[in-house]
Amino acid sequence: MATYDLVVIGTGPGGYVCAVRASQLGMKVAVVEKNATLGGTCLNVGCMPSKALLHASEMFEEAGHSFAKMGVSVSSPKLDLPAMMNFKQQGIDGNVKGVEFLMKKNKVDVLKGTGKILGTGKVEVSADGKSQTIETKNIVIATGSDIARLKGIEIDEKRVVSSTGALSLDKVPGKLLIVGAGVIGLELGSVWKRLGAEVVVVEFLDRILPGMDGEIAKQFQRILEKQGFAFKLGAKVTGVDTSGKTLKATVEPAAGGAAETIEADIVLVCIGRVPYTDGLGLKEAGVALDNRGRVQIDPHFATSLKGVYAIGDVVAGPMLAHKAEDEGVAVAEIIAGQAGHVNYDVIPGVVYTTPEVSAVGKTEEELKQAGVAYTVGKFPFTANGRSKVNQTTDGFVKILADAKTDRVLGVHIIGIEAGEMIHEACVLMEFGGSAEDLARTCHAHPTRSEAVKEAALAVGKRAIHM
């Protein structure tokens, strides 16, 4: 019987990062993976393939609409969708091989099969009708999440698809109906919109991007509508008739009222994700779940069963790969007797559309609800020199600071490369910095990041270029 210091179940960003850090700290480590490839949802059917298609579709759009005004004459671009999907697959393969290399480099054993916790210190790994029991001092559950499903709507991944199916369509749909105006739906919608689809988004709430700053969400919706997105907010899809040549979705007002029918070639169900705990034997082993099916943990990631920990999408908190990675490092350090820690107040979120949307820290709504007095500094990209000369002026930077201490509490950006620009705010907030600190930091000219400095200056009502 094999014996380890740590067995990690799942090799997504949380799981494989946890394994690498534990190995660095001198532990004998194994990972358990039920899928054919390592990397979890993120590398195989999530973050990475979607970014490949976002990038490729942006290039297609640029060639067709932006090159001419810059004095670059090219014939009208033709879409070769199989080649684009091959570009996506090359990216997936490269990243998956990278994780395999990391496992070998760090002497982490990869056990292929389905993991089941038999109790403290015991994991059963089953594959091809055979099973073996692994002994280990510690277990980390890093099994991630699965797509959330809508009652009464069956996902076949051909015509009614989840994010997984939407990454592998064999032709551009004439009309794409997206259920849910969250991050994943808007990203995938923007891919197919750029490639020629008509896109309609139905959202139960009266706004897009639930959880993001309200002002940011409103402006971003206007930008997407300018790009050709159609939104039906405060509405719900109650059924999809798949019997005809085109799909017929029944859409009703969320508050009740007369239903309407929307025809579509593809329906994409994107209403969020749920923790993946199937087959882990958690109930039998005595691992407690909360009322939303997430594994319950204490502040040190420990579950109710001694020696068993959990991280990532399977526990509470934002379902983000980088949050899982930080938790993976922290729990490995805790198991090694160190002081692993995650600062949940400084976890950035990004929507990888064009333009991008990024955020870290509190929204205005959260500060109002908590009764925190705050000041706001905003700066539009229309007043940023680099954005002007590149004609990429959509969006703005918004900084929220404590009215008494000037400490930055939240930063929100809509704009080209917003996902890259957010990180100076993250570093500032990690060190408890103020808007004044950011305003007095020299920024290279001409860069889009100058808009961040100007927004910090605007907190003190002294922006220079506005």
Verbal overview:
The structure is a single chain. This protein has helices at residues 13-24, 40-45, 47-65, 81-105, 163-166, 183-194, 214-226, 282-285, 321-335, 364-370, 385-390, 418-430, 435-439, 450-459; strands at 3-9, 29-33, 109-112, 114-119, 122-127, 130-141, 145-147, 160-161, 175-179, 198-203, 230-233, 235-241, 247-253, 260-264, 266-269, 273-275, 308-310, 349-351, 356-361, 374-380, 396-402, 408-415. With 466 residues, it is an alpha/beta fold. The chain folds into three domains: 3-146 and 274-335, FAD/NAD(P)-binding domain; 160-271, FAD/NAD(P)-binding domain (3-Layer(bba) Sandwich); 349-459, FAD/NAD-linked reductase, C-terminal dimerisation domain (Enolase-like, domain 1, 2-Layer Sandwich). Strands 1, 2, 3, 4, 5, 6 and 17 form a seven-stranded mixed sheet that branches. Helix 3 (47-65) runs parallel beside helix 6 (183-194).
Can I get a quick summary?
This protein has 466 residues and is an alpha/beta fold.
Beta strands, count: 22
- Report the CATH architecture of the largest domain: 3-Layer(bba) Sandwich
- How many structural domains can be distinguished in the coordinates? 3
Percent helix, as a range, is 25-40%
Our count of helices gives: 14
Mind describing the biggest β-sheet? 7 strands, mixed
CATH superfamily of the largest domain, by name, is FAD/NAD(P)-binding domain
Using the coordinates above, name the CATH class of the largest domain: Alpha Beta
Radius of gyration: 24 Å
In percent, how much strand structure appears in the residues?
25-35%
Shape: globular
Average pLDDT taken over every residue: 98
End-to-end Cα distance: 69 Å
Oligomer: single chain
Cofactor: FAD
Catalytic activity: N(6)-[(R)-dihydrolipoyl]-L-lysyl-[protein] + NAD(+) = N(6)-[(R)-lipoyl]-L-lysyl-[protein] + NADH + H(+)
Family: Belongs to the class-I pyridine nucleotide-disulfide oxidoreductase family.
EC number: 1.8.1.4
